[in-house]
Amino acid sequence: MRRFATERAKRLLFGSLLASRSPPSAFLCSSPPAAAAMDPAAGVVTVDTINPKVLKCEYAVRGEIVSHAQRLQQELQDKPGSHPFDEILYCNIGNPQSLGQQPVTFFREVLALCDHPSLLDKSETHALFSADAIARAWQILDVIPGRATGAYSHKLLIRQGIKGLRDAIAAGIADRDGFPANPDDIFLTDGASPAVHMMMQLLIRSEKDGILCPIPQYPLYSASIALHGGSLVPYYLDESTGWGLEISELKKQLEDARSKGITVRALVVINPGNPTGQVLAEENQREIVNFCKNEGLVLLADEVYQENIYVDDKKFNSFKKITRSMGYIDDEIPLVSFQSVSKGYYGECGKRGGYMEVTGFNAQVREQIYKVASVNLCSNISGQILASLVMNPPKVGDESYESFNADKNGILSSLARRAKALEDAFNSLEGVSCNKAEGAMYLFPRLRLPQKAIAAAKAVNAAPDAFYARRLLDATGIVVVPGSGFGQVPGTWHVRCTILPQEDKIPAIISRLKAFHEAFMEEFRD
Amino acid sequence: MSPKPLDYESLNENVKKVAYAVRGELYLRASELQKEGKKIIFTNVGNPHALGQKPLTFPRQVVALCQAPFLLDDPHVGILFPADAIARAKHYLSLTSGGLGAYSDSRGLPGIRKEVAEFIERRDGYPSDPELIYLTDGASKGVMQILNTVIRNEKDGILVPVPQYPLYSAAISLFGGSLVPYYLEEEANWGLDINHLRQSVAAARMKGITVRAMVIINPGNPTGQCLSEANLNGLLKFCFQENLVLLADEVYQQNIYQDERPFISARKILLDMGPPMSKEVQLVSFHTVSKGYWGECGQRGGYFEMTNIPAKTVDEIYKVASVSLSPNVPGQIFMGLMVNPLKPGDISYLRFVAESTAILESLKRRAHIMTDGFNSCRNVVCNFTEGAMYSFPQIRLPPRAIEAAKSAGKAPDVFYCLKLLEATGISTVPGSGFGQKEGVFHLRTTILPAEEDMPAIMTSFKKFNDEFMEQYEDYRGYSRM
User: Fold this and answer.
1) What is the domain range of residue B407?
2) Would you place residue B20 in the very low, low, confident or very high pLDDT band (cuts 50, 70, 90)?
3) Which CDD domains does its entry note (chain A) (predicted)?
4) B434 with B315, same domain?
5) How many domains in chain B?
6) Are A220 and B167 inside 8 Å of each other by CB?
7) Residues of chain B neighbouring A377 (CB-CB closer than 8 A)
8) What's the confidence (pLDDT) of residue B50?
9) How far is CA A298 from the centre of its chain?
10) Which residues of B, range 287-306, sit inside 8 Å of A by Cβ?
11) What is the pTM of this model?
12) Does B192 map to a domain?
């Protein structure tokens, strides 16, 4: 990435461009015009003159390797047979339905009815839709003012999402945790990502404000912190203990940051982890809560993978549940919990549905959150409806329960099998070790690359894991994201691979992967 | 005990500076009254479906089918859905990479961006590049993204019309920039005077502000005026001379209620000018499915189109878009349907045209009813709503009313609007939320309440206003002096 001149230099450059364009006017130029080494036709919005925070921000999940993959895909289309593979397999992004996962039928039935409510007035609708989907659609439309799914949710407090839907979500949270939830603590957003941005916006005042983030992390956090001009304070997860989170490490990094003059404001915890897949043990969670309380940090709990658990000995516990079970009441622990409709067994990424549950802060601050949320008017209604469905799926006894449960278990058990198959495959490769994916949708194998490979990477100005990922793509069509996009202990290399390709494609992926890896290791053998 | 991170004192100052008037004091009071059982007429947000406007049938049929593709395999589907809706649903599903549930390209589905480009070409007569069109969750997200790209620090100024739609002031505050106001001329039908623009820019520069961009809202919000070709020409030349990027908010382009000034896009005028300007002036144009005769606010569908933005900048904008993964897919499909409507001969065409025409003509009638209604009131002067969805009458408050407001600790227009609300249940937004000249007061209402309710609303308003004016006018009250 280009490194740019300082702020002042940029202003100088722009100032001189301005001077050459505008008629003489009585304005005071705060800096003398400098010889502009700029393209005179560049205009205002050039890469030299845009917000430097935009330049700083990076997001590897849809980065360079993906652009290259798209080029290869186009080449395959234009000239079939031009590559040693038939198709590009996008294992870079947690986007299940793009790889063939089917949506949950019940959810789609309800959404279709809500999108076109006049269907509910027709008798033929009963032939095409299940009775409980119809009932649920009626229920939902009843809580939407005017049954207008095309309306902004505009009345007071509805900018944070339609009240009736937030009631349903709060009820779902209470069911899940065994502790009550307040609908007014819920802010419905276009996916979890905008909610994360909102919190970063609120918390970050300058680059002296730091946010503790796990390494490896999902790069939304690093990108958002950069965009908002803050500092990322890394804490390392321990690969040797299945990506364990140690309080001692948290303490160490916190002290370190403070000694550098950084005010650490919040702790991000991703549970289950992305890219690492670990599910936190309850005891660990309690330690984390106490740590935040003692150090005065906001706990930002990214829990979007809460329904993706593949091991019997671990269970998802929301941080909300943990704090309440420890006896803490609402205003003692500032906690923001993020959930999304994009993951789980529903995988509805394209709908952009999600919410944050904000607890433990005062009305004044809540005003501010509401204000920021309302500048964008509201989140899309379809996503709001879906969030309420995800948190309140069919129950035993409902007409759709059997088929819903079959859909759900089918998807989850398949994900568990794929997680295991790919984990074993990576572990079978020379120099590769891969921790189990206890949850989420990814594997994050560690690659111990030979010196020759590392040198070859350096020679083309690439990080070794990016070099490996690029070679993998060129040889097999499989797209993974280099570990450097997520952060890793310096000198270690990883790639992130999703577990999402359909089960019948997995054997072919594994054999191609093995063949590629053997050839690669042979080529670069020391 | 040091303040906690989410204590009010320790929040990002820029967040605290944001004021977004479309919900403010009036809102709170309206809500309280509603809870007490009073009937409130909400005329504060451009939210057509919430006030009874029916969604167009065809797009809802298409999107419902896209939501539930298993319906397409059902033998009964033809009973519930017309063949062209079924065909169109299949078309849009084929453009997705896995249906509505998959993240699309961060810029939006290529097939839909192509439809948008084709729409722009038909509208303007110039080809448009789908690669430079990004779909967004509503136009607001696009505006925020572009402003965030342009604003580096508080010395960067953005020219914004006054009165304006407060998204702009809010976003500029949030991103830590400076708002540079340029006043629209109420007496000249909210016209834009280039001399005023020059003055605003000069004043800003004297304060050390680097003016970077100019926002136009055409048709205007809250003012409704449609810019003339001459106006557009003039301001594009101005942007060229002053090296400003033009941000053209054109979300109301379908809402035009007069024939003298039809909608012309900023892009068309720019390209008509030919080189060098057509190749140099940087322009970003915004559109949405929330307005027009579609009114699908809740879907969050929008786009922005970039003209003359360098490739490297486009890359940076793409990069930031990718952090949020993708705009919502149903909203994208609504956008596709809006720019690629039905054609004569399609089964649903006649019904679609009937529905759309009915909405537009009713809006036009309501624009007249409201303007005339306001103008029939004492001390109220109202420019005609040439376009968009709002009426922005000027209320000439007598000095005693202004004093009374002061004593009550309220801005004069807020005072008036609160009284209006309490007396009639009509909830409006005071003009101070949009900006106005010092000492001149307005309120904004939408023209969206149902047509059959309009006469009663205007009668109710007139009764309140004329009584208010009687109460506060000078020749009353001091009768013994």
Assistant:
1) 8-39+357-472
2) low
3) AAT_like (cd00609)
4) no
5) 2
6) no
7) 138, 140, 297
8) 73
9) 19
10) 290, 295-300
11) 0.87
12) yes
